Amino acid sequence: MYQILNTLYIMTTNAYAHLENNTLRIDIEREKRLQVPLHHLGAVVCFGNIMISPALMHRCADDGINFVLLDSNGRFKARLESAVSGNILLRQAQYRKAADEQFALAIARAVIAGKLRNCRQVLLRGAREASDEDDQRELSSAAKYLAIAIRNLPGTDTLDRVRGI
C-alpha cells in the first residue's frame, strides 16, 4: 500500500526544530508548539531563520525525509536530500520508453484527449448554468469544436500534430 506523506512548512522566525525520540519537535521561545512523528513526513520546508538540530538532519537524511531551506522571501537557498535510491532497471526501461516515438505519441494522445474532455465538460456546464442565451450558444459552440478535436485526435500521426490540436 502506498502512503501519502506530508510536507511540513516551518515559517515562524526563530523556531527550533529538533529530534525527540521518533518525532520532529518544534519549539518556539523554548515552548513546545508542535510534535510530528517522522514516519508521517516526506519533506520539511523552512522559511527564514529556522534552527535545525544536527541530530534531526541526520535522522531525516537516514529516513529519506528531504529538507528545503528558503529565505524569508521564499527564495531557494539549499536542499538536504538522502542518497538517491531506486531501481536502475526501471529507470533504464523508462528512458527506453521515452525514446520510443510511437509510445510517446500514444501517451501524448491520451493526455491531450483527457485535457480536451475536461475542458469540454467545463464548457458544457457553463452553458447549462449561463443565464444569457448568447453565452449559452458560444459555450456550446466551443464545446462542439472540442468534440471535433477529440474525434480527430486518433488520426494524428506526429507529436507536432497532437500538440496542434
TrEMBL record:
GO terms for molecular function: DNA binding; endonuclease activity; hydrolase activity; metal ion binding. The keyword DNA-binding applies. InterPro entries: Cas1, CRISPR-assoc_Cas1, CRISPR-assoc_Cas1_C, CRISPR-assoc_Cas1_N. Keywords: Antiviral defense, DNA-binding, Endonuclease, Hydrolase, Magnesium, Manganese, Metal-binding, Nuclease. Its EC number is 3.1.-.-. It is an enzyme of class 3 (hydrolase). The keyword Nuclease applies. It holds the Pfam family Cas_Cas1. GO terms for biological process: defense response to virus; maintenance of CRISPR repeat elements. Homodimer, forms a heterotetramer with a Cas2 homodimer. This is CRISPR-associated endonuclease Cas1 1.
